[in-house]
Amino acid sequence: MGKAHAFAYRAALAAFPDIPVPRLEMIADVDQGLAAKAAHQYGFQRSSGHWRDLVNDPNVDVVSITTPNTLHREMALAAIAAGKHVHCEKPLSPSLAHSLEMVDAAEKAGVSTQVGFNYIKNPLLKLARDMIAAGELGEITGFRGIHAEDYMHDPESPYSWRIDPVGGPGVIADLGSHIIGMARFLLGPIAEVTADVRTVVASRPVARGAAERKDVLVDDVARILVNFGRGCGGTIEANWVATGRKMQLGFEISGEKGSLVFSQERLNELLFYKAGGDARTSGYVKIEAGPQHVPYGQFCIAGGHQLGFNDLKTIEIGEFLRGIGEGRVSGPDFREAYEIQKVVEAAIAASRSRSWVKIS
Amino acid sequence: MGKAHAFAYRAALAAFPDIPVPRLEMIADVDQGLAAKAAHQYGFQRSSGHWRDLVNDPNVDVVSITTPNTLHREMALAAIAAGKHVHCEKPLSPSLAHSLEMVDAAEKAGVSTQVGFNYIKNPLLKLARDMIAAGELGEITGFRGIHAEDYMHDPESPYSWRIDPVGGPGVIADLGSHIIGMARFLLGPIAEVTADVRTVVASRPVARGAAERKDVLVDDVARILVNFGRGCGGTIEANWVATGRKMQLGFEISGEKGSLVFSQERLNELLFYKAGGDARTSGYVKIEAGPQHVPYGQFCIAGGHQLGFNDLKTIEIGEFLRGIGEGRVSGPDFREAYEIQKVVEAAIAASRSRSWVKIS
Amino acid sequence: MGKAHAFAYRAALAAFPDIPVPRLEMIADVDQGLAAKAAHQYGFQRSSGHWRDLVNDPNVDVVSITTPNTLHREMALAAIAAGKHVHCEKPLSPSLAHSLEMVDAAEKAGVSTQVGFNYIKNPLLKLARDMIAAGELGEITGFRGIHAEDYMHDPESPYSWRIDPVGGPGVIADLGSHIIGMARFLLGPIAEVTADVRTVVASRPVARGAAERKDVLVDDVARILVNFGRGCGGTIEANWVATGRKMQLGFEISGEKGSLVFSQERLNELLFYKAGGDARTSGYVKIEAGPQHVPYGQFCIAGGHQLGFNDLKTIEIGEFLRGIGEGRVSGPDFREAYEIQKVVEAAIAASRSRSWVKIS
Amino acid sequence: MGKAHAFAYRAALAAFPDIPVPRLEMIADVDQGLAAKAAHQYGFQRSSGHWRDLVNDPNVDVVSITTPNTLHREMALAAIAAGKHVHCEKPLSPSLAHSLEMVDAAEKAGVSTQVGFNYIKNPLLKLARDMIAAGELGEITGFRGIHAEDYMHDPESPYSWRIDPVGGPGVIADLGSHIIGMARFLLGPIAEVTADVRTVVASRPVARGAAERKDVLVDDVARILVNFGRGCGGTIEANWVATGRKMQLGFEISGEKGSLVFSQERLNELLFYKAGGDARTSGYVKIEAGPQHVPYGQFCIAGGHQLGFNDLKTIEIGEFLRGIGEGRVSGPDFREAYEIQKVVEAAIAASRSRSWVKIS
User: Fold this and answer.
1) ipTM score of complex
2) In Å, how far from its chain's centre is CA B176?
3) In chain A, whose CA is at the least distance from the CA of D14?
4) Which range of residues forms the domain containing residue A341?
5) Among B143, B227, B236, B254, the residue to mutate for chain A (most A Cβ within 10 A)
6) pLDDT for position D42
7) Which one of C9, C246, C270, C286 would you mutate to disrupt binding with B, by most B Cβ within 10 Å of its Cβ?
8) What residues pair up with C271 in beta bridges, in sequence order?
9) Final residue belonging to a domain, choices C59, C87, C118
């Protein structure tokens, strides 16, 4: 993820000439050699083996935190205390209470924050949100959201930091937060949930091929029924044992007048159905991303060229920097990340109590 | 539906030379003129304005019931009493108790029965079931099933018999039963459910364009979390307000070693992912239906020609007749239809009680 | 193919109540036992081991010829002489001159004829033709047509009647005639061609696994540049060594104002692009076949159910019979088949002379 | 295009830590202000209003030429004379003779060259090429290649530099060179061609909405029959009036044992069919780009993330720089661009003479 950030900071100005010019100042890594090497490769001026050097450096205005989840809080709080603007990879913290602490600190300090929900930076998702907001689908009647991948599908994949409960829940936090965030981005707050959040692979070998196994304590699949605050219902699934899927992150949204279908598997396409046209020739329209979908044109001269993952990350960073320059929040900020985490925690609670749980 | 049956009975022998030769004996309709006209068109020898003429006729061995749901029970019980084999369109009856009565009557009489869950007659679904049963996907870890269409999406579509609660629940019975039946066909019994079963369009005009509106009392969308008896979880959605969808009946099944993806929207295709192959060239395989998928070859000489809906109906009827000839159940029979209805009723109960409900 | 016809004649009346009622009178096959068995299976009243019995029978009004190509002429001429209406599978004859003889005989006798170019009976292709004729695509600027399959791709597939030059050319006649016919159906006459028509598999074993091989004298692939009489250009490919393809029969047609894309691989879908709409949401529309596309509704009650190959054959036969009843040509008739064959022959000549060849 | 280069030079080191470290030295533009602005935005140290300043600067080792076609030659020859390595956008020059002059100059000077055929830098195309070279498709039997877009489809689009014949031919050079280059990359030299190269929109307004029109002298569509040196045939189409298409750049390659299908419209997917597997479950495999396809992993951590157009450009530049560092050609170099241009010129000649033309 550090690499994706480096790409993004390097590309942001080329894509967005109107943002404050980023100067790539310093990379910190607990391994000082690695930090130096990365600084060279990614064009940063300095490096350090101590993250506090970075967050306290007077030449640094903006800090990106891409460390393991358990370290986010301490680093973010220190950076905020030093008056830095902070970008943090999700989740803010394994603990909801700690996340709230981080939100409060940032808001009190008045610094800009951003959390890495990069997929919603897709120009086609902005189009989707705008269409929904403008009523082009009519009253929304349903949402079906999925983020399924397969990197944990093999029961012989060894136990790793990724499934250590000290870092928080399993797939519902890792992938679920993306699709929950996307749902909120498109349709607004989720009011209540019930869920089945479960571990599928009960134990894993302690190392590749090892006979010794360790019990898995985090979830592999989360299936959630949701009620949105706006009144419509839906389902959300997060799944990292979905054999075959590499990036099944997407949704189908139905409204009385139309619908939208999206999958990150084909991130430059959005399907749109508009009710009521000429019956002979109506159907789903495959919208292909092009310069008409801002800010696609900052990256490619014409439709068909296509954005990739790193471009979404560049949009994210570009918007963050522009927001800092203009003194406004570009989002999703710490507050939004906290709201997403509340849905995650509510789903886990609902699954445990086998009941519906309201989200305050 | 009567027409689809007529097609199927006419085509069954051409497709399956080994079945008992069907003689198209009689059509009954409350409108005697219509019955006569249909008999002519579909090549039946006689017609009647009284269904009892048909179920009691000594030359009739097999009866197909395609009337409104509320009439199924009386007709089926009379036909069974007369010793006929009975094909009935789903659901057996709006009332679960009445359905059980029909099951018991048929089983006591020893007649063959079949219920019109035609979509599972697709050769590719038999392949899917066989692959799962043979362990080709490994341990199954998840099911995502959907049957969504849009014929009720427009709030100005008038109130009709289809949404009169006297005929039973709404979409969960109409479309939900298909995907529940498909889930059971592929993965076996469902042990418990929780659900959100709701009416989306609160009222509808009493007639097209009328100012007067009538409250809708049946469900438009059902979202269900399921636990299968075999241990895996899943989701099922039934939806008749899914604007744009004409036949989104399908599933994604994940197993530790592979997965299958199907949609009736492309009924001659089945996607299969097998874990563990050559990483360079692995991915979802699009299996196209062909003569290697029995009984496709009874209809088309080569792959690529493709089956249509009426062919599935012909397979259904062909298997029914062959089963009668061989004195065995070809299914899905009344018992299976009753089991499906139990899941429907459990989901409704779960939605009302906002809790999980076990299925006995 | 005989089976497909039997299906079609059985289903035609059920689908089209307005056509003359077909009575299934007689099946002839050189093997009398087989003829009797087929008559039983397909519901024909009589059978014979002599085709002349059939074409001369006074109770027979319509004859379908589904024998090998070399036999078409004699049978068709006899049937025409007996005043029968004749349906013949393509090609009329391996010899262009003989085909013309058949056309002339039929036209002189005033009988109705039809040739089995069933794929153009797809309701979506009628839509395509109507849209083009109505100018919905504007001036047509290009055609790209393909009929590629793979049933001959394996060099170890044995030599067979299919590649015996006595039956006529190879793939250009077998598959090429379908896509040439489709091109003419949609865009009208082809004025000139140049082509590369070639044998890819030089020899094949005389039997599966045999060491002895026989030289292949017919073409495996034909690639054709065409100029339509209307002025636009295009390409046509016929290919039976297209490994992996089971039914890649389709086209892309571009016009100044729009375009259409079709593949028989998904025969219930037609893609339509209309230039000049809202740039944000324009793109290819996936039109799904439904009752709005006549005569789909004669087969299925709603969109999404889908037609299959046999339904196209039923439409073909139904239209043939309706045409006979109404005393008009429903097409494609012998004349049209002859025009298609002229394009086939011109392409072969162009390939041999390595030049452009005009079609009179 | 200058922007795409700037992106690529900025990103190359981040993606490829092993290449010589690029220092972004100077941008030249005839508009000095624009040059200065671009230098700032893209992080170059200096700028100039005179391109000769750049090609003669002692601190510059590598020159990228992204000017109009007519200027390429003079700039490239000057840069080569100054001993610089040169990247040039295609075509080298409107004149084949001038292009050869540039090839010879570069080869004599011993500098590295590259031409911007960026699409073949896709990791999946390298996979395709490797599979073909390794015989995984068996003997190749056919190629169908297309590059179709629609940016000139509207007859009211005004006359512009793009269609001024002084810059060379029309679509056959602009898009055709990409698909010809791709064909050569995958299958090797093209031995002969015949073609239909034509202007579709005869005249265009001199400005948007103007009544005055100007005759179009360059081609809008080119349809080409090709024979590859390896023996197989194929078709190639270049088309910029293919209404609806934004990036239909792709191919279908058939071999005796397998086939590959690719479209730049879904650049992270490659379809592969392998003959001879289990008939029940064989079919086209959708290969999704991932780290197993070098150098995808230099950009994204896992499959499903997806590359975009700018990443392909970065691979191009990265390979160019690595090649310079290692003193070897990474290609496609000036020589390869010249070979592609020879095919373009042969197709034009074939179309004019209405005959086949050999390529020496």
Assistant:
1) 0.96
2) 9
3) A42
4) 120-307+330-353
5) B254
6) 87
7) C246
8) C261, C286
9) C118
